[in-house]
Amino acid sequence: MQYALIADLHSSFSDTRAVLQDIRKRAPAATIFSLGDLHECHVGKKRARRYTYESIAHVVTLNSEYLQLLDFETLLGNQEERIFSIVPTGVSGLLDRLRSVPRTKQVGDDVLFLHGDQFEWSYTLIPNTSQFEQRLLFFGHSHQRGLFRDGRRLSTQLDVPISIKQERYAVNVGPVLVEREWLLYDTQEESIVYRQA
69 burial class (0-12, 13-18, 19+ CB within 10 angstroms)? Predict the structure, then answer.
C-alpha cells in the first residue's frame, strides 16, 4: 500500500490544492492522509490561555473552497487543539465533527502516524522520539522535512527513494504551507520519497 502523507496545511488553499494535484498526478493509487494542522488558529498559543471567545472568524477561517479540498482522513494537530480550546462546542458542526478525530493512527504493528507536537524538540529541531516504541514514526509540525535515526538528522533529497527497512526511523514529511512538500510512503517496499509540488 502507498500513502501520500501531508502535514501543516494551515488553511492555505493554494498550497493545498497544488499538493493534492501533484499527488493525484504522480501517485494516483496512494491513499492521501494528513498528519494534522489542517487549519490555522488565528490566536497565538500564549494569548489562547486567556482568550475570551467572541466570533469564530477571529479564531479560524473556514473558507468553503478550502474545505472542499479536505476529502481525506486526518489526525489532529496542535492548531486544531488550540481552536477547540477557544471555540465552544455547538458553534460549528464542522469543528464539532473534527473534535472526534484521533491524535495518532497505528498502521500495522510498528508504524505510527502522529503530529509532532507530541515530541519534545531540541533547539536544532531534532525530535525526541524515545517515548514511542514503534519502529517508524511519521509526523509533521516543525515545518522542516527530515529523516532521523538514533537522534541524528540524515541527509535527504527530493524525488530520491530511501529505504527505511529494519532500522528505527522518525520521518518528518515536511509542510504543505509555503514549501508544498509531501511524502510517498510505500508499506510493501518499506521506502519513502520526499516530493514537492
Answer: middle
Q: Residue 45 carries which side chain, given as an amino acid letter? A: K
pLDDT score for 14 = 98
Q: What is the pTM of this model?
A: 0.97
Residue 187: closest CA among 6, 49, 30, 51:
30
Work out whether strand 136-139 and strand 146-149 pair parallel, antiparallel, or are unpaired: unpaired
Tell me which DSSP letter residue 177 carries. Answer: T
pLDDT of 139 = 98
Mean pLDDT of 83-112: 96
User: What are the residue ranges of helices labelled H in the chain?
Assistant: 13-26, 45-48, 64-69, 78-86, 93-98
Q: Decide: 3 and 185 in contact? Cβ < 8 Å.
A: yes
**How is 141-176 classified by DSSP, letter by letter?**
-SSS-EEEETTEEEP--BT--EE--SS-EEEE---S
Please, is 4 exposed, middle or buried when counting C-beta atoms within 10 Å of its C-beta (0-12, 13-18, 19+)?
A: buried
Tell me what the mean pLDDT of segment 29-50 comes to. Answer: 96
Contact partners, residue 1, CB within 8 Å, separation at least 6: 31, 186, 187, 188
69 phi and psi angles, rounded to 5 deg? -75, -20
Percentage of the chain with pLDDT > 70? 100
CA dist., res. 32 & res. 74, Å (int): 9
Instruction: Write out pLDDT tens, residues 137-148.
Output: 999 999 999 999
